[in-house]
Design brief:
Layout lengths: L4 E6 L4 H12 L3 E8 L10 E5 L18 E4 L10 H22 L4 E5 L13 H13 L6 E5 L3 E3 L18 H7 L4 E3 H14 L5 E2 L1 H9 L2
Parallel strand pairs: 1-2, 1-4, 2-3, 4-5, 5-6, 6-9, 7-8
Helix pairs in contact: 1-5, 2-3, 5-6
């Protein structure tokens, strides 16, 4: 694919989305970035446009602003900690599929990149609730009429220095990153590598639809 990519990012006020946004703004391949947020990101850049929208379950009022994009980097998500399955399913599966269906209708040539997680259960039958729900989300996204759908399954991600939405506990763990990367190479990458890998699959594709950590690192090296 040629350069001059136009991308949509969800979840840019969270750690993962902010890290992906940072890579998109740095990339010479990307000329326009649209953020869909419930609250302002606080980021300004010549490439950047932001839509503040309170109800992600109802996008009809902004649907006309979502066409003409080459990719969506879907970084919106919630932790399953403390949530029952019904609520987690609604915020993870129902919300993701609704937004993806809207985007597939207005951008049928779009590449959709979904941030899932290491350990996701593609069988949808395992004992771990979040893994089942993520697995169903991945599976059903693959059936939507996009050009391509990729499910990214990162594990531990080393934050990008200088960004503001890094979760506090990373302040106590980041110093161990070199050790983690050496001992757990199949589970550890950086946020920078995740963003770069998304840009890489948008440009050039990838033979696998489900990308584990080793695939993410490999793709990042190609950017």
């Amino acid at each position: 694919m040629n350069k001059d990519l136009r991308v949509i990012i969800t979840g840019a006020t969270g750690m993962v989305g902010e890290g992906v946004l940072h890579e998109c703004l740095q990339s010479p391949d990307i000329t326009a970035v649209l953020l869909i947020n419930r609250k302002p990101s606080g980021v300004t850049h010549p490439k950047l446009k932001e839509i503040i929208h309170s109800d992600f379950f109802e996008l009809s009022s902004i649907e006309g602003q979502l066409s003409g994009y080459d990719a969506c980097y879907f970084c919106l998500g919630v932790s399953a900690i403390g949530m029952n399955e019904e609520d987690y399913y609604r915020m993870t599966y129902t919300l993701t599929l609704y937004i993806a269906q809207v985007l597939s209708k207005v951008n049928p040539e779009m590449v959709f990149c979904y941030v899932s997680g290491s350990g996701t259960d593609s069988s949808e039958k395992g004992r771990v609730m979040w893994a089942r729900v993520k697995g169903k989300t991945e599976n059903d996204l693959m059936n939507l009429p996009f050009k391509k759908v990729y499910a990214f399954r990162p594990g531990y991600m080393q934050p990008t220095k200088g960004l503001k939405n890094v979760k506090k506990y990373y302040n106590y763990m980041s110093w161990m990153y070199p050790f983690f990367r050496t001992v757990f190479p199949s589970f550890v990458s950086t946020l920078k590598e995740l963003g770069q890998a998304m840009i890489a699959v948008t440009k050039d594709g990838y033979p696998k639809k489900v990308l584990e950590v080793k695939d993410i690192i490999k793709l990042a090296k190609s950017v």
